[in-house]
Known about the structure:
With about 400 residues, the protein is α+β, with helices and mostly antiparallel strands. The protein folds into 4 domains: about 1-155, 2-Layer Sandwich (Beta Polymerase, domain 2), CATH 3.30.460; about 165-235, Hydrophobic Seed Protein (Orthogonal Bundle); about 260-355; about 365-410, no CATH class. Helices cover about 55% and strands about 10% of the residues. It has 22 helices and 11 strands. The strands form 3 sheets. A 7-stranded mixed sheet has the order 3-4-5-2-1-8-9. The protein is elongated, with a radius of gyration of 28 Å. The chain binds adenosine-5'-triphosphate. Adenosine-5'-triphosphate binds near residues 52, 54, 127 and 177.
Amino acid sequence: MTTYAPLLKKALSPSLFALLQILGQRGDAQKLNVFLVGGIVRDLLLGRPNEDIDVVVEGDGTAFAKELQMLFGGKVTFHPSFGTATWITAKGQKIDLVSARTESYKAPAALPTVEKSNLRADLARRDFTINTMAIQLNPSSFGQLIDYFHGKADLEKKQIRVLHHLSFIDDPTRIFRAVRFATRLMYKIEAATWKLAQEACELVKLLSNERLANELQLICSEPHVVPSFQMLDALKIWKTLIGFPFTVNNEAHLKNWLEKRPILSKDLDWFSCLAVIGYTEEAWESSLQKLAFTHQQKRFLTEVSRLKDYFKHERNLSYGELHSLCRLFKEESLQFFAAKPFEQHAALIESYVKKRNNLVPLLTGEDLKLLGFEPGPIFSEMLLSVECAMLEKMIQTKEEAINWVIHKKQKG
Length: 412
Ligand code: ATP
């Protein structure tokens, strides 16, 4: 029987390797089988870095975690609804421990009912064969690979394969996961699995918007966003979810945006990628509303929609006009609008953003008070008018700005 102990030793840091040995020894002391499972086993076999330690215990995983903490210190957090525990060791290493369990699904896309079980059943509830491998940690079998579902063969064939034909019906988030692993590893989705994903595509509508957003965010945080979007399109996910396909124009927009986008918050990063889908369509904003949760995402949608409106019918706007309309718009909304290929106003917008960023105010509220203005809405009106005039190069000095507002005041 091949042992993967040397591979574990080579791939992991010495402290982590020692920790896995300790987990196995404590397993023996408690008469429990203990296994390393999931993504880390897959990545170990692929030679990809991963130190996310998921451990399955045939027995009570949470009691095992408690005992580890008592013996070795650190901190344990329990997640009772999942029957899992996270042990942060005294040196800060995070280990997720779970009792081997089986899952059943009462309805498509519903969350599963969970019961304690053995390793095989625990692995059988997982998404793809390549994620079902386990490595035993108990000393007498330390490093032994357990591969009930031929995950290793699928790694060699470079394919993503589900374990059973109801997999996507039980949990349609797996469609997104399949795409994410396929593009990340440059694997194909095995033919029967692809067909099952196609057949289940309508079910993504049943997922809560939070679960959907989570999957989309994960896809967008991987390096290969464009191929993932193309694959989701081939599975008709965009049409089902947003109402539009991912067109060639969308693709060019996305590529351009991914290259040029400023540093964005996590909220906006994935959402802005999603926002290229259906971008030229009338119902674009309303179709994306359901996935815009945060204030930032909603604001982004509204601002880009307004920009689309302002520039409808090839209208030309001067810097001053643009500023009076968009002075409060975030840079990311403006840049997103400008990233659409063949956008006639891209250069204007980009140059406006630069000018706006370099704008040094010539007047302040204090100056206006000294000039006899009563504090109120007139203040922002005047300051905006000065900024617009600066962008139009009509005024350049403080003196000119003072004359400008006095003149405005006289005109009423
Ligand atoms: P990543 O490298 O992206 O972190 P991972 O394989 O470690 O990938 P996680 O999302 O951390 O993925 O999940 C850990 C393990 O739990 C997976 O390897 C898989 O076995 C299982 N799993 C996660 N999500 C699902 C799901 N929706 N259905 C079935 N099994 C899942």
